[in-house]
């Protein structure tokens, strides 16, 4: 509003209210893909000899096995050799049977797409290749206190020999979940209490608390939510030291317990794939 003067007396006139323009972006800040490879026994030699290291060098992909990082390096690649896999709610035979997974990531989508497209051309036609893609977006439900609880001292990526275990667990949420408003979805990440202040359930954050100190966590979201048929809403990935594998299993058990974490009533998991980080492409086929 502003003042005018009529006959020497001030008069208030309405004016358009001034508003901030502070809408925060949800645009992707990182792009990634897990290339799941099923290699028939007779094709391992040809697969091992494929010039994949040269492709990685040309795209300037840094090997995640080699060094720790204070954040996300610009472009990276990782080689994961199968240890075991177990089926989930969603049937996904290419992932369940994959003998190796290659992770590639970049701040830009082009190097990621170029890598898996070129990889398909370089490998023997007998190989089955399943590509799981996703993006990293700014955190949606994480305020100051939750950031300090879950991310202030989160585990950064360590060299392969320090944290050799890798776990890929893709999942989707049900249509009932996506029909909820964002405020209601947010409540499932927090504990729930009755009128007397007694905790009824822990929620996602407390159920997963044991992993904060020892598990590297990475989550890609699908470009669109919910994801289309044949894709996952979320690609969750973890790394840990040998002595912390039991903690990973403990955390997954707690998350899957709907009495402790009601959110999981809306979750449909794909196969849970376990691997070992290796230093080179050829080691995937040893």
Provide a descriptive summary of the structure in words.
By secondary structure, the chain is an alpha+beta fold. It has one domain (30-285): Alpha-Beta Plaits. Helix content is 23%, strand content 30%. It is built from 9 helices and 14 strands. The strands form 3 sheets. Strands 3, 4, 5, 6, 7, 8, 11, 12, 13 and 14 form a 10-stranded mixed beta sheet that branches. The radius of gyration is 23 Å and the shape is globular. The model has no long low-confidence stretch (mean pLDDT 92).
The average pLDDT score comes to: 92
Provide the domain count.
Answer: 1
State the end-to-end CA separation. 75 Å
The first-level CATH class is given as Alpha Beta
- At CATH level 2, the architecture is 2-Layer Sandwich
Query: What is the strand tally?
Result: 14
Main sheet makeup: 10 strands, mixed
Q: What is the H-and-E element order?
A: EEEHHEEHEHEHEHHEEHEEHEE
User: Which of globular, elongated, flat, extended, rod-shaped describes the shape?
Assistant: globular
Look up the CATH topology: Alpha-Beta Plaits
* Radius of gyration based on Cα positions: 23 Å
Structural class, judged by helices and strands? alpha+beta
Q: What is the helix fraction of residues, given as a range? A: 10-25%
> How many DSSP helices?
9
Low-pLDDT sequence parts: none
Please report which band the strand proportion falls in: under 5%, 5-15%, 15-25%, 25-35%, 35-45% or over 45%: 25-35%
């Amino acid at each position: 509003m502003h003042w005018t003067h009529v006959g020497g007396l001030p008069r208030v006139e309405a004016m358009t209210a001034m508003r901030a323009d502070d809408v925060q972006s949800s645009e992707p800040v990182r792009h990634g893909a897990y290339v799941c490879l099923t290699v028939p026994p007779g094709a391992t030699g040809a697969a091992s000899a494929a010039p994949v290291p040269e492709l990685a060098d040309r795209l300037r992909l840094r090997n995640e096995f080699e060094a720790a990082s204070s954040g996300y390096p610009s472009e990276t690649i990782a080689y994961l050799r199968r240890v075991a896999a177990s089926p989930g709610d969603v049937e996904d035979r290419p992932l369940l049977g994959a003998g190796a997974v290659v992770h590639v990531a970049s701040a830009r989508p082009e190097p990621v797409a170029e890598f898996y497209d070129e990889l398909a051309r370089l490998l023997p036609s007998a190989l089955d290749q399943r590509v799981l893609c996703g993006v990293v977006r700014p955190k949606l439900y994480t305020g100051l206190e939750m950031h300090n609880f879950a991310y202030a001292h989160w585990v950064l990526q360590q060299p392969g020999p320090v944290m050799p275990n890798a776990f890929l667990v893709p999942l989707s949420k049900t249509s009932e979940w996506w029909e909820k408003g964002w405020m209601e979805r947010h409540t499932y990440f927090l504990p729930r209490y009755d009128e007397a202040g007694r905790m009824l359930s822990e929620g996602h954050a407390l159920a997963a608390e044991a992993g904060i100190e020892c598990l590297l966590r990475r989550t890609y979201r699908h470009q669109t939510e919910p994801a289309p048929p044949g894709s996952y809403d979320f690609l969750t990935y973890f790394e840990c030291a040998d002595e912390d594998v039991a903690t990973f299993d403990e955390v997954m058990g707690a998350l899957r317990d709907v009495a402790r974490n009601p959110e999981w009533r809306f979750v449909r998991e794909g196969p849970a794939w376990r691997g070992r980080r290796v230093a080179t492409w050829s080691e995937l086929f040893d």
